[in-house]
Structures are given as C-alpha cells and as structure tokens.
Design brief:
disordered N terminus, alpha/beta, two-stranded antiparallel sheet, eight-stranded parallel barrel, single chain, 41% helix
C-alpha cells in the first residue's frame, strides 16, 4: 500500500487503479512508478532512475526506448529478438516508448504491437507520430488534418492499443510553412485528443528554432517536444532552450545520445547529414578513445544520461545485448580514466565546435531541391511559401 503523502500526489485514475488492483500492484514511492508484481524485474526497477517530465507530469525512466530499430531502418532485424527487446526493456523499468509510421513504413509499429500484446498497459507510456510516411519524396510528408486523423487510427490498429499517450508531429520543419502545422496539424491532434485516441499533443524535429516558432504560435497546447542530437558530447545546444520549454510547461524528450552514430568507434553511416568538420571532430574523438582503450559510445551515453535537467533520452536498438549495455549505463559509473577522457574530449575536441555544431538546414535543402516548395504547397492551397 502507498503511504498517504504519496497517494495525495497520484491522479484520481491512478488511485482508482491502485485500489482496484491492489492485490497485483505495489508502488515504489521513491520513483512514483507503479510496479507490476510478477511482471517487473524488482531489482532492475529499483536501480533505474525516474525523473519528472514537464507537460504530462509523468515520472519517466531516464533511458527511454526508441522503436525505430524495430522497423529495420539501420540493419536487418530479427522479429522475435525485437519483441524480446521491447518486453525486456519494460520489465527492467523503461517506461516510455517512441515510434512512428515512418520507421520501416509501418513495420516498427506493427512489430511493436506484437511486442506489447499481453503487456500491462500501465507499465509504459506510448508515443507515435503523424506527418511522415513513405520513402518516395512526393509521398513522404502530409500534414493535412484529414491525413493526421487517419494516421492516428492506423497507428492504433497497427499497435493494437486503445489509446496513444502522445501524438506528435513528425519533422514539421519539412512542411513548406510552419503556419500549416499551427493551424491544421496541431488542431487535428487536438481533435484526436478530444476523441480519447491520444492523451497529449507533441512536436518533434531537428531545428530548435522550429520548435520555438510552433510553441509561440500554436493555439493548441503543446505538451511535449522531442529533440534529437542536441544534447550529446558534440552538441549541447539544447541547454540554451531548456528554460524556454519549462516556461511553457513542455516536457522535453531528448534522443540520440551517440548523435546518430557520430559518437561511435565505427563512425557514422554514409547518409549522415553532419558537415565534414563535425565528422572529423568525432573521428578524432574515436581515435583518441581507441588509443586510451575506452568506448566512445559508452562515454557518450553517460554524458547524456547523467544530466538531471533532461528527464529522458530515447535510445533505439533491436539487439538484446545492446539493450543490456544501454541499461547498464543508467546505474554503472565511469572509471577515473573514462571520466578524464570525457573531460578531454569536451574541452579539446568538442568545445571548438561551439557555434558550428549543428547541421540545421542540410536535409531540408536536399529535400526541397528534390521536391520543390511550390509543388509541396499545392497540397495546402491557402498557404504561401515561407
């Protein structure tokens, strides 16, 4: 049974759930996380750190699960292993999952749905996205209201759930005019929320300036903002925006601690949009780490996860062994050598990148060169090019 001071902090719905299911649930007051007896790994959950996120006000595991890998977007994956990865993550206390119909063009959500079947719904918060869909450039993005509402229904069906905790706009910077997002896409998500299909409204995307514009210009309350590659060893620009998000009561979800492969000994994939100067700095970091016999990816994970002002960081994998090493980063400490190498990397390699650490605009320029804003705007006849 939870103590009175904790019960007062719980929502009416959670109090009801706890009362009705008290034979099956206990509560960890120190984490404000419902522990499902007979399901969760008690030792792993006790070691996991939970942080309060603004906006929805949840207590989320500092490591959250990105399901893009389930869509085989990085490599061929084994479906049975993918399912086991999701279930193991949940049982070990990870309680936030993010996916999108874009990841594998429906495959990620479909595999995730199989993984979530039979798992207690109160053990996780589920986020998906709308707006980005197919690989063909002409069919990649559609931010119109009717497509948003249809997409939510499709995601619910693929994942076999009754509701989604956060419906997010996927990469809105690729919309030819952000006013379309504010006046059409976000209101459609609000409509899905009113219908009980989603619980909260969120945005995603790479340019932090786009986040600021939408937050300042949307009549719809934005609850969460997912940002990637802006709080990592090589780029900490997210820090400059944290107070802005907090002032607007928006929960920040960080993603990609290893900066989409830049911060790894094997180096980034060929498609990575970072400029040559960023790739070279990260390659120099990898070389230095190899000389010191330490793992750059491990240092990157610790650097990101150890910041208490960032509630949670999404990391994606479809590998059980990689999941275990990711979870280990949540409670294992670095050696004195690893701490010193991290400090050296920050001071001598990555600090000189300050002011030129992002690749904002690179992917958008390539996209518009292929498609053309004028062509895209034909989908939204009442809006002009920005």
């Amino acid at each position: 049974h939870s103590p009175p001071y904790f019960r007062q902090k719980m929502s009416h719905r959670d109090q009801t759930l706890l009362t009705c299911q008290k034979a099956h649930f206990v509560v960890f007051p120190q984490t404000a996380t419902i522990f499902v007896e007979g399901y969760h790994d008690a030792e792993a959950v006790a070691k996991m750190e939970y942080r309060r996120i603004d906006g929805p006000g949840w207590d989320v595991s500092k490591l959250s699960f990105g399901a893009s890998s389930l869509g085989s977007v990085f490599r061929d994956t084994d479906e049975l292993e993918s399912i086991e990865v999701v279930r193991t993550a949940l049982k070990k206390g990870i309680n936030l999952i993010d996916t999108s119909p874009w990841y594998g063009h429906g495959k990620s959500e479909a595999v995730l749905g199989k993984a979530l079947e039979g798992q207690p719904r109160q053990a996780y918060k589920l986020m998906t996205k709308v707006g980005r869909y197919q690989p063909e450039v002409e069919q990649m993005f559609d931010f119109r209201a009717e497509r948003v509402l249809a997409s939510i229904d499709e995601s619910l069906a693929r994942m076999g759930v009754e509701y989604i905790d956060v419906g997010q706009v996927h990469d809105p910077e690729f919309c030819p005019n952000l006013d379309i997002i504010c006046s059409e896409t976000l209101p459609a998500l609000a409509k899905a929320k009113a219908a009980g299909k989603i619980r909260h409204v969120g945005i995603t995307g790479y340019p932090l300036s786009a986040h600021q514009y939408m937050i300042e210009n949307s009549a719809v309350k934005i609850d969460t903002a997912l940002t990637y590659c802006h709080y990592s060893l090589n780029d900490t620009s997210l820090e400059d925006m944290l107070q802005f998000y907090k002032d607007h009561d928006i929960g920040v979800i960080n993603a990609s601690a290893i900066s989409m492969g830049l911060l790894s000994n094997r180096g980034p994939p060929a498609w990575h949009p970072a400029g040559a100067h960023i790739k070279q700095a990260c390659a120099d970091a990898a070389t230095y780490c190899q000389a010191k016999q330490v793992d750059l990816g491990k240092l990157a994970m610790h650097f990101t996860l150890d910041n208490p002002t960032i509630a949670t960081t999404l990391v994606s994998t479809a590998s059980l062994s990689r999941l275990e090493s990711n979870i280990a980063c949540c409670y294992e400490t670095l050696t004195p050598l690893e701490v010193e190498v991290t400090r050296t990397l920050r001071e001598t390699i990555f600090e000189p990148l300050k002011g030129k650490e992002t690749w904002e605009g690179v992917e958008m320029s390539a996209y518009w060169e292929k498609l053309g804003k004028h062509h895209a705007l034909q989908m939204y006849p009442t809006f002009q090019e920005r």
